[in-house]
Amino acid sequence: DAGVTQSPTHLIKTRGQHVTLRCSPISGHKSVSWYQQVLGQGPQFIFQYYEKEERGRGNFPDRFSARQFPNYSSELNVNALLLGDSALYLCASSPYGTSGNTIYFGEGSWLTVV
Amino acid sequence: KQEVTQIPAALSVPEGENLVLNCSFTDSAIYNLQWFRQDPGKGLTSLLLIQSSQREQTSGRLNASLDKSSGRSTLYIAASQPGDSATYLCAVGSYDSGAGSYQLTFGKGTKLSVIP
After folding, report:
1. Neighboring chain A residues of B43 at a CB cutoff of 8 Å
2. Over the stretch B56-70, which tens digit does the pLDDT of each residue have?
3. Whole-angstrom Cα distance, residue A113 to residue A16?
4. What is the DSSP annotation of A36-88?
5. Please, is A55 exposed, middle or buried when counting C-beta atoms within 10 Å of its C-beta (0-12, 13-18, 19+)?
C-alpha cells in the first residue's frame, strides 16, 4: 500500500505570494494533520482534520488555512508568504481522530520563500 | 503549554555501543508518546508508540520507556550500527476530548552519528 504522499516535493515562492500544498493519506485513514518544521527545530502542529472537519489548530496566523476533501486528501494553503514561512511542511495520517494508533508522516514539501 | 526537551542535541558513538537518548516533558497529562527517526531531508518514520498507561515498548534493538510522573522518556538503542545514524525525535501526544483533536508536541531532536 502507498504511504502518505505529498506534492510538490520542493518549491520556491516569492514573498507575498500564495502556496498550496497537497497530501493524500494512507488508504483507509480518515485523519490528516499538518506540521511545519523549520530547519534545526522539531515539527510544529498546524492543523488536524478528521472526517472533513477541522478538529484542531496550532498557534499559526490566519494566513494558514486547510481543508479536507471527501476522499480524505487535504490541502494546506498559505497566503501572503513571509521569509519565515520557509520550512519543511509535513502531512501525517492516522485511521482515527484520537490516534491511539501510530501516526504516519509523508516525506514533506520543502518550501523556500525568497 | 507542553514543552519537550531532548538531551543531548548531538551524539557520536563508535559502532557496537549501546546508547540512551533522553526526552523530558513539562505536562504529565499526556495521551501517548512516540519516538520518530528522521533522515536528512526526509520525513519522519515512527519507531515506537507508548500509550500513557504503558511503561515501555520494544522493537528489535530499540526499547523506549515512559515515566509520566517524572515527565521522562528514554530511547535505548542496543548494539548501534552506522545505519542508525539519523535525528531521533521525541513527540508527546495530547488529546482534547472536547474538540476531538489530537496533536504531537515535538522536541528538537538528538542527532546521532554512529562511527564505523
Report:
1. 4, 90, 105-108
2. 999 999 999 999 999
3. 9
4. EE-TTS--EEEEEEETTEEEEE-S--TTEEEEE-TTS-EEEEE-S--GGG-EE
5. buried
Min Cα separation A102/chain B (Å): 6
- Please, what's the b/e burial string for B95-105 (b: 16 or more CB within 10 A of its CB; e: otherwise)? beeeebbbbbb
Q: Assess whether pLDDT exceeds 80 at residue A53.
A: yes
> Between chains, do A105 and B44 touch, taking CB under 8 Å as contact?
yes
| pLDDT exceeds cutoff 90 at B101 | no
Q: How many CB atoms lie within 10 A of CB A84?
A: 8
Non-local (6+) Cβ contacts of A63 within 8 A are A78, A79, A80
